[in-house]
């Protein structure tokens, strides 16, 4: 496995049909499932590991974010990754002021309201990474549904020569969606966090018995989530517009929950 630190290191790879998995490291089984899919569909797989400062707000966890680089490299090597790109901040942001990108208005709300500037940072770094890695396909988890929709829009709107591929959320055996931030939870908080998948399951089961009205479905979820701090729990279509009723195969229940100081995202695709 090649370790690339600079754009020049990436250039000499001289690879074609690249499947790309951008990450911030602290890899877990969710990332490994993206890598596996990329391996199945591409001749050459590149993973980037970069904790991107521009997508963190002032009071967020940038400095605390886990950075187990050696372990991550080991996991990538074992997963059969061809090259890992681990740039320094100065390499990706050579200028004091960087060009910025904004998500389109129709994909705002939710995370964009709670984390001002977050998606501009995500767009900025992912566009830089796409330009450096030049992948044919790039793989993102459905857990970060809004990020995924915004990145798909960027690829389409800017005619980027890359296909942005959505991959299903992986869960621990207790149902909690895998996230690098789960490591922040104490055992008691983790127990409380299980209310999130339980609430989504309750909604799914209710939908399967024929309830389609958003207010009814969301009320059932809210009940399960109590007393956790629900930052949002909403029914939207897959263009992120609010829905009154579930539209089959075009709906999403989005939620962000605070457990202690940790924010956890989850969602249900209906
Ligand atoms: O989802 C993530 O881990 C990050 O937002 C990404 C896409 C790697 C950009 O830094």
UniProtKB/TrEMBL annotation:
**InterPro entries, sorted:** Cyt_trans-like (IPR004821), Pantoate_ligase (IPR003721), Pantoate_ligase_C (IPR042176), Rossmann-like_a/b/a_fold (IPR014729)
Q: Where does ATP bind?
A: 24-31, 141-144, 170, 178-181
Q: Which residues bind (R)-pantoate per the record?
A: 55, 147
Compartments annotated for it: namely: Cytoplasm
Enzyme Commission number = 6.3.2.1
Name the predominant localization.
cytoplasm
> Part of which pathway?
Cofactor biosynthesis; (R)-pantothenate biosynthesis; (R)-pantothenate from (R)-pantoate and beta-alanine: step 1/1
MF terms per GO, please? Answer: ligase activity
- Pfam annotation, one family: Pantoate_ligase
For the keyword Nuclease, the answer is: no
Query: Which residues participate directly in catalysis?
Result: 31
Question: What does the UniProt keyword field contain?
Answer: ATP-binding, Cytoplasm, Ligase, Nucleotide-binding, Pantothenate biosynthesis
Reaction(s) catalysed by this chain, per the record, are: (R)-pantoate + beta-alanine + ATP = (R)-pantothenate + AMP + diphosphate + H(+)
Q: Which residues bind beta-alanine?
A: 55
NCBIfam families (UniProt xref): cyt_tran_rel, panC
Q: How does it assemble?
A: Homodimer.
Q: What does this protein do?
A: Catalyzes the condensation of pantoate with beta-alanine in an ATP-dependent reaction via a pantoyl-adenylate intermediate.
Q: What else is known?
A: The reaction proceeds by a bi uni uni bi ping pong mechanism.
Q: Which family does it belong to?
A: Belongs to the pantothenate synthetase family.
* Name listed for the protein in its UniProt record: Pantothenate synthetase
> What does the record give as the organism's lineage?
Bacteria, Pseudomonadati, Campylobacterota, Epsilonproteobacteria, Campylobacterales
Task: Name the gene that codes for it.
Answer: panC
